[in-house]
Automatic annotation (TrEMBL):
This is Deleted in malignant brain tumors 1 protein. It comes from Salmo salar (Atlantic salmon). Pfam families: ig (PF00047), SRCR (PF00530). The chain crosses the membrane at residues 346-368. It is found in: Secreted.
Amino acid sequence: MMRVAKVVCRQLDLSSTKLIECSTKSFSPESVRLVDGAGLCSGRVEVKSDQSWASVCEADFDRQDAEVVCGELGCGAPAALQGGLYGEGEGQTWDKEFQCKSKESLLLDCDTSDRENNTCLPGNAVGLTCSEPDDVRLVGGGSRCAGGVERYDQGEWRTVRAVDLDQEDVAAVVCRQLGCGSTVTVLPGNTTRGSLVSCSGSEYECSGSEPSLRECRRVFTDLCSGLTVICSDLLVQPDISLTDSMGGVSRGHQGPEVFRGYSFTITCSTQPQYPGGSFLLTFTGSNRTQTQPAVNHSAAFLFPAADDSHQGNYRCVYDKYVFSHNFSSESELLSLTVTASPLPAFIIRHVVVLLILLTAITTLYLYYKPTRRQKRVNRVSSMDLYVNAMEMVSLSSRAEAGPGEERAAQGTE
């Protein structure tokens, strides 16, 4: 048994000091796997059920579930998640919906729930691609999928170099390992990190089909030239969202619903990788498209009044020209349904307008009424002050006059 454990440890490229830990993990019951992919970290998701393997339906699996699977398999973060990506399984389909919180160690530790439909349509078996363990990175290119190639080796990040005839193959392996698609450009030299990174000790020779750089042949050398790689999945996936200003959007069973006659806005946004670029909003099933420049990494597409022609699937496509190439990235689909409003739209509009006017009139009335009352109070207060002042003057005059003068004044009165 120890001999088997040692072989497994060598395959995982672990040091001999971790043989016991590795052997314990090797003989733990396997509960999830990725099949028909390029290696351990990619393939169709299958779960072990009653000593047999079952495919997982795309509708029962999300990114948080994927993070748990990638972590359980010892891989990096999820890079791609899509139904039918690695074909369909021949066995049964898993009949539960996973509800992972991405903190679980094992997929079977996640909560599950029964799904409404016990069938999984053909083409919906979920495929998952995890990035390889984070021992390779691209730096200095503004994206995790562009820059100088570095590998973590012997406690520090070292520049990866390759002979001229082997650079394309090394770049292909690096892009695959990072889950960044295919190679777009390979440039000799790595000046993005200067002298901060050691590059002596290894040079890589790859055939181009290896799942990770650690599978390539290493040749020890003191030379240091490095290479810079640009991968096809340079841009992160943009987001798509639906908003409205009059309460005409609701959440239905099949996704968001918009009441007929109401305005709505579809917003495209992306992470701040590069300035500029543009967003293309596509409508599935027709040639209708709209394009807007990206302002603060987003763009809003306004639709004044929803009708039946707006029902369908929308997608945001972010385009950016960088590194002398055009790159694009697509969002998930937004399925929009147009339904009849509980009340005719024009009636609701009139009610809303009347409510706004009533609110404005009430506000003005409450504002000006105290003002007029305050003016009347001010006028009364001024009159009282005037009368009191005149009485004070009269009393003061009488006090200054003698008794005879006072009687004369009274007689005069």
